[in-house]
Design brief:
This protein is 42% helix and 13% strand. Strands 8-1-9-10 form a 4-stranded mixed β-sheet. A 3-stranded parallel β-sheet has the order 2-3-4, with helices on one face. The protein has a 3-stranded parallel β-sheet with strand order 5-6-7.
């Protein structure tokens, strides 16, 4: 191993320049180091997953992000907004298969107020014992602007209505790239402000990174260090989820997607650099089952959720599907023990046999 990999292998923290140099390291050596770093948090040989459902309650969004293949403008004939009863039915279907987590996601719909979101959350919580891991930082920030309330007060209202935790939805936390791919979305500082505020009121969250969006390797490390620095201050991130950009049906359809080696290297580097985040996901949604399975040897300890009814990635033409039985098969295939978890990463059920 190189001096930098030896430093990482011994558990020491790497800086920005050292993080960049990791992309030049041997793939298998990176995997070995990442696997050791993972075992600091997870020595028990268990890989987890959650039974969840994505409920995309509207496809209307005014932001016009150029990387999105799903959203439509408010006046579009394809625009929809699910009724509360339709949403309740979808939650009920999740509960019936043993699911525990709901991810409500939509665009920035100009007709939806803070009261709408609070009423929806309260309605779900009155009917179901389910964890609401929902609403993006952009949705929260825009609700603060339209309601005239501070971020803290908006988050407190949402929390009191039933919101349990925030999903990451970070894309890439580098404003140079954000100005190209999503010029009307919140900035890096604003995303971090939403997350820090959520953590300050006792709400945990996850963080994502979508790569292969014209960013440099250095900018990927910049993204990771923004997350690491905030985690040092708050400890509020439960997990980090890196995944590759799917360019088809977007304004960037001519971009060459990141390949398997790039994905595995970035996954391993995430584990090495984010030494203060306990859970790293490997992503079947964009990478497929086989590559996600290999990712379990490159620092990942979690396969995420089964994501009933995922629509946003599917709109790009990437349409991998999974199930509880497939999750168990993937995990057992690498000699590890599958376990169903909740959103707090507490194990609910192991599948030892």
């Amino acid at each position: 191993m190189s001096d930098i990999l030896n430093k990482a292998f011994s558990g020491k923290r790497l800086d920005f320049e050292q993080g960049i140099s990791l992309f030049d390291e041997d793939l298998l050596a990176l995997g070995e180091v990442a696997d050791k770093r993972m075992k600091k948090y997870h020595p028990e040989n268990v890989v987890t997953f959650v039974i969840d459902r994505n409920i995309t309650f509207t496809n209307v969004c005014v932001l016009g992000c150029r990387f999105c293949a799903f959203s439509v403008k408010p006046a579009s004939r394809e625009a929809y907004l699910l009724s509360n009863e339709e949403i309740f039915h979808k939650v009920e279907e999740l509960i019936e298969i043993g699911g525990t987590q709901v991810l409500l996601q939509g665009g920035i719909h100009p007709g939806l107020s803070l009261d709408y979101y609070c009423n929806l959350l309260e309605g779900i919580k009155k009917r179901f014992d389910v964890w609401l891991h929902s609403l993006s930082p952009t949705e929260v920030y825009c609700l603060s602007k339209t309601s005239g309330l501070s971020l803290k007060n908006v988050l407190l209202r949402l929390k009191n209505a039933g919101l349990d935790s925030l999903p990451g939805a970070a894309e890439i936390l580098v404003d140079r790239v954000r100005k190209i791919v999503s010029p009307h979305k919140i900035t890096t500082v604003q995303w971090l402000e939403v997350m820090e505020t959520a953590h300050s009121i006792g709400m945990h969250s996850t963080a994502t990174m979508t790569f292969g969006m014209m960013e440099t390797k250095a900018e990927r490390i910049e993204h990771m260090l923004e997350i690491r620095d905030l985690q040092d201050r708050t400890g509020g991130f439960k997990a980090f989820i890196p995944w590759t950009f799917s360019p088809d049906n977007t304004d960037f359809s001519t971009l060459q997607p990141a390949g398997g080696i790039d994905y595995l290297k970035t996954l391993a580097i995430s584990r090495i650099m984010l030494d203060n985040i306990p859970n790293i996901h490997t992503g079947w949604v964009t990478e497929g089952h086989k590559l996600a399975q290999i990712g379990l040897a490159f620092g990942a300890n979690d396969l995420g959720g089964i994501l009933m009814e995922e629509k946003v990635v599917c709109a790009t033409g990437v349409s991998y599907q999974t199930s509880v039985s497939k999750m168990i098969e993937i995990i057992k295939g690498v000699g590890k023990i599958p376990a169903q978890r909740n959103t707090r990463y507490e194990i609910l059920r192991r599948f030892d046999k």
